[in-house]
Amino acid sequence: MTAPLCGWMAPLCAMALALPGAATPAQELAQPLTAVPGDAARGRAILVDRRVGLCLLCHSGPFPEERAQGNLASDLSGTGSRWTAAQLRARLVDARRLNPDTIMPSYFSVDGLNQVAGRWRGKTLLEAQQIEDLLAFLLTLRAPPVS
Ligand code: HEC
Fold first, then answer.
1. Are 123 and 110 in contact (CB under 8 A)?
2. What is the distance between the alpha carbons of residues 71 and 85, in angstroms, rounded to a whole number?
3. N or C: which end of the chain has fewer CB within 10 A?
4. Which is more confidently placed, 146 or 7?
5. Terminal Cα distance for the chain, rounded
6. d(Cα 91, Cα 88) in Å, to the nearest integer?
7. Residue 125 CB–ligand 1 contact under 6 Å
8. What is the pLDDT of residues 113-141, one digit of tens each?
């Protein structure tokens, strides 16, 4: 929240400022979506597959074999050092939980989406197991130690 917006919302602003980085429940999903733990190798395959995850349309990362990578969003290197599993799950399920204006697709949510073409209506972009696989892979992307 930026300062000029505070005005009449001062009490809310004060809360936001008093809790730097504190995650609200909506920003975390601690409960795995599946009983079967995610598989990092499958997650990597989903991430680089342009017909499935489409992640590299926007993101780049440590994927040397992928020549064309996106520049609309961050480099995914070090993701596992920046976020917890619960935070990453919340983002993959519905990135609007963290940023209502995000352009990142909601991969496992059908709530409040507009203009969804007929055959996709009511369907999630990815399956629960695919979300858990992606998550397992993202958690392996650790930032190099600072020397
Ligand atoms: C249409 C563009 C787009 C696509 C496709 C997309 N993202 Fe994102 N992603 C973003 C943007 C923009 C952000 C920056 C934060 C925001 O807007 O919420 C982001 C943020 C993230 C972050 C947090 C990055 C950080 O700062 O550490 C992760 C992790 C992530 N995305 C993973 C994925 C994965 C995995 C996929 C594919 C399943 C994906 N994204 C697909 C646009 C996209």
1. yes
2. 24
3. C
4. 146
5. 34
6. 5
7. no
8. 556 666 666 678 999 999 999 999 999 99
Quick one: CA torsion of 35, 41, 47, 51, rounded to 10 degrees? -90
In single-letter form, the type of residue at position 98 comes to L
Q: Is the CB of 61 inside a 6 Å radius of any atom of ligand 1?
A: no
Whole-number Å distance between alpha carbons of 133 and 49: 13
The encoded tokens of residue 34 equal: 């599946």
**Ligand 1 centroid distance, CA of 28 (Å):** 16
pLDDT exceeds 60 at position 12:
no
d(CA 119, ligand 1 centre) in Å? 24
Q: What is the pLDDT of residue 3?
A: 46
- CA–CA gap between residue 98 and residue 77 (Å, rounded): 20
Q: Which two tokens stand for residue 108?
A: 């496992």
Q: What is the pLDDT of residues 66-118, one digit of tens each?
A: 999 999 999 999 999 999 999 999 999 999 988 999 999 999 987 755 566 66
Among candidate residues 47, 33, 31, the one with its CA nearest the CA of residue 109: 33
Q: How far is the CA of 115 from the centre of ligand 1 (A)?
A: 21
